[in-house]
Task: structure prediction
Amino acid sequence: MCTSGELLFQSELKAICSKPGVDLRAPTQYDGLEYFCRDSLLADIELSLWEIKYDKKVNKYVKTACLVDRARSSQGGVEVGGDLWKDESSEGWKAISCMRQPMRNLVKIPYVYEQMRRNMSRRKKV
Result:
C-alpha cells in the first residue's frame, strides 16, 4: 500500500511456483558468497493494482477503483527455497519498503493512463 504522494494505491502480487528452481550464491553477513537461496524464473504470477482513498467514516484506506485487474505472467522471478525455508516456523522474508525513482513513477503509469482516459471521455460528453 502506498499512502504517500499524490497518487495513492494498493497492489497485490500472488506467485505460485511448482518448479524446484536452482541454488544461487548470495552474499552472507560473515561468509561471503554462499549457496544460500533457491530461485526460479518460472513462477505463475498475478498482479492487481487499486486506487485507494482514506475513508474518515471507517478510519482506514479503502479501494476505490481497479487499475490493473489480475495481469498475469508465467515468467515470474521468485525465491523458492534457502536457509529461511528450512525452518518450518519461519514465515519467510518480511520488511517495510520504500519505493525509489524510477520505479516510483513507473508503477503510477496505469493510474495516470486511466485518469487521462477518464478526463478525455468526460470532455467528449460535454
In short: The chain has a mean pLDDT of 82. The CA atoms of residues 35 and 120 lie 53 Å apart.
